[in-house]
Amino acid sequence: MAASLQRGNTYGSEIFSILLSHLFADLIEKGTLASVERTYDDGAVAGGGESSAGGGSGVGGGGGAVASQGKNRALKQSARLVTQAILSNGLSGLDMASAVKQWRCLRHLTALTVAVVTESGFGIVQLFDYRNQDASAVDGITGGMYGIRLDNLVSGVNAFEALASAKLHPNNTGRHKRDRHRYVCVVLASQVLTLLDAFIFPDNLDAAKAASQLHGLALVRSTEPRLGQSQGTLLASLVRLSLVLLAYLEPSSVKFLQACSRLRCFLHWVLEILRESVALGGYNQAFHELTAPLDRMVLAIVLQCHRALSRCSVVLMEMESNPWQKYFADIESRHKGQRRLFRAILELREIVLAAYRGRNEVLRAALSPQAYEALSHGLEEVTIGGGTPSKAGASDSPSREALLRSFLENGWISGFHDVEVNGSLVIPEQISSGQLHEGRPATTRGQDAIQEIVTENYAIVREYSALLNAPFTLYCENQRRWAETDAVRDREYEGDVSVKNLSTKHKANLAECAKLASIRFSLASRRFHHVVRLANDPYDSNRHWMFASRTDLMYRRITFHPNYDFNDHREAS
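Above: the chain's sequence. Below: its structure in C-alpha cell form.
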C-alpha cells in the first residue's frame, strides 16, 4: 500500500503517514488486543494468585487498578496481559504464542516508523545539522515555543496538519523535504514511544526492582529482521526516535520532559549492554567492532543533548525576558512551564553525566580536545558545586536552580554550535576532525563515526526502499517465469507469423496505392496541360494556322485551325 501511494499520488508519503498515525492512535486508545476488557477480566481471574502476591503493584493491587482507570486504560490492560504472559511463560494473562506475536507486531511497526522518519530526512546525522532548526519563536502549526507542542495524540494526524507543510514546501528535496515532513515525523515518533511505554515500563512491575529493569532490557535487545539488519536492536530504534523528539519538541512541554526521562533510561540500557560486551571480550577500546554501533549511539545522544540544552537556555531567557502574556494564557502556566524546563535540564545533564562516566573513552576519542575539556570542566564544576541533584524538588530549591543555571552557562553548552560542511557530510564543530590544539592535530575518529552513522542511515533507507519495491519485484519475477514456459513460446511464434503476414500485406497495399497514385497524377497532369493550353491560346501572338481537314464536333467546317505542331523550315535549314 505504501509503495502504491508513493507511486500513484503526489502526496503519497503524507497519506501513508496519516494512515500510520491513525493506526497508532487506535492502538493507544483501544489497546492492542481485540475485546481487551473481556480478555483482561479472564486473565485477571486466572492469574489472581500471582497478581496479588506483588504487594499491591500487580493487577489485583490497588495501585495497578487505579492506574488502569486513567489515561490509555485499554492499552495498559493489553500491556499488562502481555507482560504477565512473558514473565509467567504463558501461565498467566495471554498464552505465550499470542504474547510473542503481539510484541513482534509492535517491533515491526517501530522499525517501519524509524524507516519512514529516516527516509523523510530525519536521520541521526540530519539532526546534527543545526542549520535545519526552525528559527521561529512560535511554531506555525501547534503554537509551541521554540518547538512543536503535542498535547493530544489520540486523534492522530489530520489531513490539514500533514498537507499544510507539503503545500508550503512543494520541493521534496533536501531541507524542504525535512520542513515538509517535520510535524508528521515528530508525531509518529511520539506515538510509537507512547505505545511502547506501556509494554517496556508496565504498571504491574515495580521500577525499583531489578526484575523490572531486566524485563525492559530483554524486550529492547531483540531485533526486527523483516526490515533488514541496518537498524540494529530495538533499543537503537527507540534511541533514534527519542532523538527526533529531543530535537523538535517544545523544551518546556510535558512531552519533552517525558522524552528526556525515557532517553535517560535508554542510555542506561545502552551502557549496560556495553558493559556486558566489555566484560565478555576483555577490552575497553572505543568504537571497537563489536561495540561500535552502541558507541555511535552514545555519541549521538551526547551531541543531541548539547543542542537540547542550548535550546533550553534560549527558552529560559525568552521566558524571563518577556511578559507572561506573550506565550502563556496565565501566570500559573508560565510557572509550570519553567518548572518543567528546569526538570528537563536536570534530566539532560544526568544523561550527559552518565555518558561521560559510563563511556568516557568514546567522548575522549570522538570529541575535539577543546570540546572535551569544556565538557569535563562543566561537569566537574556542577558535581563539585552541588553534587548530583535529585529529581524531586530540583526546580523548587534555589540552590538546585542556581546549580542548573551555572551548568547552562558553561562553555560547552554556550559554544560549539557551528558545523563544518565536508561535501554532503555535515560535521558538528565539536567533533574531532583533525583540528589543531596546542600545536598538535587531533584525530579524525569523530569524523569517521559521523561517516559511519551516515552509512547506517543510507542502509536503512535502502532496505526500506527495497521493502517498498518488493511487491513490484515479485510481480516482475512471476511474469518472467511465466514468459519462459512452452505455451508462451508457442504463442510468441504464432504472433511472429501473424506479424510477418500482416507486414507483407501492408507492403503490397502500399505498392498498389503508390501505383494508383502515379496513374491518377499522370491523368491529372495531362488534363491540366490541356486546360492551360486552351486558356493561353487566345493570347498567343505567334500563332500558326493550318487548313482543317475535317469538321469539328458540331459538324462545322472551319477553314483555319491552330497548328500546334508547326515546324519552322528556316530553323530546320
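DSSP finds 22 helices and six strands in the chain.
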